Amino acid sequence: MTIKTRFAPSPTGYLHVGGARTALFSWLHARKHGGRFVLRIEDTDLERSTAESVNAILEGMTWLGLEYDEGPFYQTHRFDRYEEIVQQLLADGHAYRCNCSRERLEELREGQMQRKEKPRYDARCREHYVDPDEPHVIRFRNPTEGEVVVNDLVRGRVVFNNAELDDLIIKRTDGSPTYNLSVVVDDLDMGITQVIRGDDHLNNTPRQINILKALGADLPLYAHVPMILGDDGARLSKRHGAVSVMQYREQGLLPEALLNYLVRLGWSHGDQEIFSLDEMIELFDLSNVNKAPSSFNTEKLLWINQHYIKHADPARVAHLLSVHMGDLEIDPALGPDLVEVVKVQRERAKTLVELAEISAFYYKDFDLYDEKAMKKVFTESAVAPLERTRTALTALDEWHPQALKRAFDEVVAELEIGFGKLGMPLRLAITGGSPSPELDMTLYLVGREASLRRIDRALQTIRRLGA
Ligand code: GLU
Q1: I need a surface site. Which of 100, 139, 142, 273 has the fewest CB within 10 A?
Q2: If you measure from the C-alpha of residue 229 to the centroid of ligand 1, how many angstroms do you get, rounded to a whole number?
Q3: pLDDT of 270-311, one tens digit each?
């Protein structure tokens, strides 16, 4: 039997990290077993579902590289099929019409609350005839006895008493199907073998199993993954900062870093922290998913991101970085080669946004010098080294790191000064104070014209400061 998993988001917001982790686990499980991964958009809540949210989900999945083999399927396109199943359940006596008024249900609920009972429908319409032409909902006739055992792949054995479950609505007065019905029909029609989802759905599972049994269907296996908490122990939400996957992209995360972080959030393989995608696919196992909630830790996420910035193929980093260079109004195509810049700068940044910021000076003149450094190194004693360097650089036949290094050595020897007396002002002149590699490499990448222009600007600044 082909393993088939699905990710079934409701398009009522962005793709958040919790959803992305569920999607990742489902995707990994399918990939590991040579199965198929389905994307299903659960948009039956017409009031809360939006097209923007659908786009945000698709965009997030694409950015993360969680490609799906089937779908996206939209539940709103499948209403006829849900209706067919509702009619089948009615005909087989597994469902019934209910015309209890809102007032009656409200009263029932209040009485139960007062008696400290769990609010539930009292099944009054089970044995009533309700005219199909009058307004009504359709309820599932839940078994009243026995229990439902869920052998959850994460939680283990979880038992529910049927006596605890009431007759849930499967079709509303307006004719629309409810969540529990559409999920069951879809999981069945799409041949889902493992339902992997957040544990906020665990209580729906016995209801869904009962409907599947009424339809005579084989049951899928279930895996409920625990929720993600913020660092304060409360459920992760917007107030903990970025929770939307695309916001992480904006903040300069590499998708592989976010995936690596997410896979470790609630799953482990010994104490290994860094997993390539292939390793994740090979090693991931639902049985190693934690039962307890996991806490989101931004510092660790950044640590992993830094790891990927340092170790990923520089061409790939450059490719992802170019978007952030664009945000700074820099066109890396105008040179120097962004891959070369990545190679020399990447040790120094935790995010692509930071990497873009500290690399901007290669492409455009900075606005301001670092204030503290300026006061310290732009003094009278910097004038001669900078002037001599300017002359030496103008005369260079070739602009490459070795030639630049020779020129600096000559200036230092001629003036009989330590390298720092040239190095510090020159570095500030060229970079404005951004972190940078060896000076020969820095000037090489900045280029001759910009280097000379910036040395002139530094000399003017020193004169102004001294005046
Ligand atoms: N649409 C549901 C949600 O976004 C998920 C349903 C499921 O996975 O069964 O919470």
Answers
A1: 273
A2: 19
A3: 999 999 999 999 999 999 999 999 999 999 999 999 999 999
- Looking at residues 175-197, what average pLDDT do you find? 97
Q: How many CA atoms lie within 13 A of 195 on its CB side?
A: 25
429 lines ligand 1 (CB under 6 A): no
Task: Report whether CATH 3.90.550.10 matches the domain 366-467.
Answer: no
Architecture of domain 4-75+227-302: 3-Layer(aba) Sandwich (3.40)
| CATH number for the domain formed by residue range(s) 78-225 | 3.40.50.620
DSSP state for residue 363 in the 8-state scheme: T
Q: pLDDT tens for residues 186-196?
A: 999 999 999 99
Cα separation of 126 and 95, whole Å? 9
What residues does 228 pair with on adjacent strands? Answer: 294
pTM for the structure as a whole? 0.92
As a whole number of angstroms, the distance between CA 226 and CA 237 comes to 15
> Cα(25)–Cα(20) distance, rounded to whole angstroms?
9
Equal CATH topology for 4-75+227-302 and 78-225: yes
Amino acid at 10: S
Give, as one character, the DSSP assignment of residue 191: T
Please name the helix (run of DSSP H) or strand (run of DSSP E) that holds residue 225, with its range, or none: strand 221-225
In the predicted model, what is the mean pLDDT of residues 134-147? 97
Ligand 1 atom at minimal distance to the Cα of residue 12? 4
Tens of pLDDT, residues 425-438: 999 999 999 999 99
Q: Give yes or no for residue 201 CB within 6 A of ligand 1.
A: yes
Checking if the pLDDT of 242 tops 70, the result is no
Instruction: Return the best residue to mutate from 42, 73, 76, 209 for the ligand 1 pocket (most ligand atoms within 8 A of CB).
Output: 42
Query: Does any ligand 1 atom lie closer than 6 A to the CB of residue 10?
Result: yes
Q: Establish whether residue 167 lines the binding site of ligand 1, counting it when its CB lies within 6 angstroms of any ligand atom.
A: no
Q: Assess contact for 113 and 119: CB atoms under 8 A.
A: yes
Q: In what order do the strands lie in the sheet with 70-74?
A: 70-74, 36-41, 4-7, 194-198, 221-225
When pLDDT is averaged across residues 6-13 and rounded to a whole number, the result is 96
Q: What's the Cα-to-Cα distance from 51 to each of 47, 127, 231, 244, 268, rounded to whole Å? A: 11, 42, 32, 17, 36
